[in-house]
Amino acid sequence: MSPWPPNRGAGTEAEIDFTLEATDAGLLDRTGVGHAGCYESKRDFMKITKIETFVCNARMRNWIFVKVQTDQPGLHGWGEATLEWHTRAVVGAIEDISQLLVGEDPTRVEHLWQMMYRQHFWHGNGIVRGTAISGIDLALWDIVGKIHGVPCHKLWGGAVRDHIRLYCHLGGGRMEDFYQTDPADARRFGELAQRAVAQGFTAFKSMAVPETMPLEGLRPLKYAEACVKAMRDAVGDDIDIMVDCHARPSPRMGLRFAKVLEPFGLYFFEEPCWPETIEDIALIQRSVSTPIATGERLVSQHAFRELLERRACSVLQPDITHCGGLSEARRIAAMAEAYRVALAPHNPQGPVSTAASLEFGFATPSYIICEAVLDDVPWRSDVVREGFTIEPKGRIVYPNTLPGLGVEIDEEAIKKHPFEQEVLLRSFYRDGSVGDW
Fold first, then answer.
1. pTM of the model as a whole
2. What residue numbers bound the domain in which 268 lies?
3. Which of 154, 296, 356, 428 is deepest in the core (most CB within 10 A)?
4. Where is each Mandelate racemase/muconate lactonizing enzyme C-terminal domain found (predicted)?
């Protein structure tokens, strides 16, 4: 039983007058519910009273937690709006957007989403505003789950699977191993692959494709081939390997990498070129049997629609903390289902993002696997309480049983890890020209 009262929406005076007249006429009972059970009094409603951000430095990024408070004692929701190198911009955007929402009914999630997205000359499909909207949207869904006393996935029709498989980054989760292992050192890739499997993972992702100029010869192709071969030899055929290009290659080089790595049976090949070049991604997908994955940099359903219409990929990777939150992710999932395209959300962020991705996955048929960074900081469990449980063997997650997203953040613990400017990462080609990080 939920400890909070059922919500009653904010009605107009005419609606309230109708309720009172109907009650007097015997059409409604004294609670405002009709004899057919289809009408509620609209004289009072829950309100948003405050929206706050809490920044927590977690080594390679600053987690941005969003707290939406209500006028009901103890009832609040947590979201996350982490965006590397844009922490101050996102915090400012949330402060701006919050002016639209204070005093509104937090259970009208879709209505509030439309307000955040549309009530501004600049629609909410830029990365900063999209991330701000996402963080608030997650917190609103957390509130709705708490009101009803159920996990969010039960609000969307219930669980469609018994568990979800997690995948880690090369080495088991230490992001330096993922980003900084030299593709010229194939043996090291094999060692780190074995480490991930030893931690119980049955799938991991690596960055085995080196930084590459728009057109190069065989050297980078041979490096990538040697790294993936070393990983496959180290872990065997029963482990799923993913390779992330980080959108570094040109379309032509991305195609060449895809063809060179095709014999190794990758689970998917991620961002082989810039996501803006949809025709080129589609060409790569048509040219190889390897599933191509993309979408982490896209921030609206309209961009995903174009990917799907052009059959540009086999795996969509919306980032729930950037694409518009759970509300927009569910619309993207519905489109993907129509095209029979799989979903594997991008999720290298913090604990609320992971909880949201899992809730989304338990209610989404086309969801295949969850990216997770669980060992980013040793004090993670001091900051957050999570409602899901992980089976160490196989690294599979069972459904959260707590209301909403199932997370609670320790605000005092966050204060021990204040904001720090992230290290700016620079990338240059051998001739000194600027490359893609």
1. 0.89
2. 155-414
3. 356
4. 186-291
